[in-house]
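To assess whether the prediction recovers the assembly geometry, we first specified each molecular entity separately, as shown.
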Amino acid sequence: MNENYIKIESKSRIENIAAIRVAITSFLSTLNIHFDELMDIKTALSEAVTNAIDHGYDEEDKEGKIIVESYIYDYEKVIIKIIDYGKGIEDINLAMTPAYTSKPETEHAGMGFTIMESFMDEVIIDSKVNEGTIITLTKTIRKKKSGK
Amino acid sequence: MKYNYADGKLTIFLQEEIDMNSCRILRGIIDGYIMKYQPYELVLDLSEVKFMDSSGIGLILGRYNLIKLLDSKMTIINASNSIRRLIELSNIKLECVQHE
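The predicted structure of the complete assembly is given in tokenized form:
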């Protein structure tokens, strides 16, 4: 099996979300992948990283750490792990409920997990309270660019 | 971000990437223009938006609620395929999304 990967470590700062998103998307764009499918992965990744930073850590905790690992297997299977060492998710089922948000005062749409599940093949949540959360996003590339 | 106001219609031209970070700034600016002009219609033009995630959905919903308070209407134009899918997924009853 052919494996390729890239790993990014970042402080849990909202202004870093764009950089992580662009770096991982750039890594995946080496694949024979349709633009729309790449955008789907980019959106799901953005949701997961935003969750890790916004919910994993308190706003004043700017020293939190986020790790994003992106793997490509056999040029078609993409696995992205988004790891934080923050507060963890107390009730995963509740967190995954569409339109639910733990921060209603902040104008969050509560759509993060719904988008991840719709845009990826598989979403695995591994979370322990006060230890952190690992989100694993998996997708097998289907659409290929034409002419290749 | 550019904007245009004419004859009661406020058009906001959103740009680049709309995520949690950019929403923090955009929210205040857009609401400032809404309160200043109190338009009968708010148009969000997304033609120059390269990326949007659910933070953008939150931004749209928030402005929609504000516009409803003013008894005005809101229209979203020029949403890309990806953004349109995101809006549909969010189950927002946005009768205001214009299909070309």
